[in-house]
């Protein structure tokens, strides 16, 4: 019963704002990670996947994804370079919050690959994901 009441209150509040569908979508999309953070408060880091599911962030998965893109590029990265990029992406992502969208993580990876001039891996990663 409590969840239904919370839902109804939220719907009423959003209706009073009289937002366009686009603005409503933007507000909900922006608020969702913060909502998850406030509700969970368990100290762990999470990713909102493209499917909308919430999954605990596992840095190893990020590194594996980078390694696959690296292997597909003309100039693969060494272990030290993979670690550098993966660690920096993890650090920057976590600085922004405990819950983030997978697309934001992807954007961070691409930004760092470009910054460090790993253009072949950048292209492979962009096509891979």
Helix percent reads over 70%
Count of alpha and pi helical runs: 6
Q: Report the average pLDDT across residues.
A: 90
Along the chain, the helix and strand elements come as HHEEHHEHH
Q: What's the oligomerization state?
A: single chain
The total domain count is: 2
Distance between the termini: 41 Å
Task: Give the helix/strand class.
Answer: mainly alpha
Residue windows where pLDDT falls under 50 for at least 5 positions: none
- Rounded radius of gyration (Å): 18 Å
Main sheet?
A: 3 strands, mixed
Strand content: 5-15%
Task: Please tell me what the overall shape is.
Answer: elongated
How many beta-strand elements? 3
Spatial order of the strands forming the largest sheet: 2-1-3
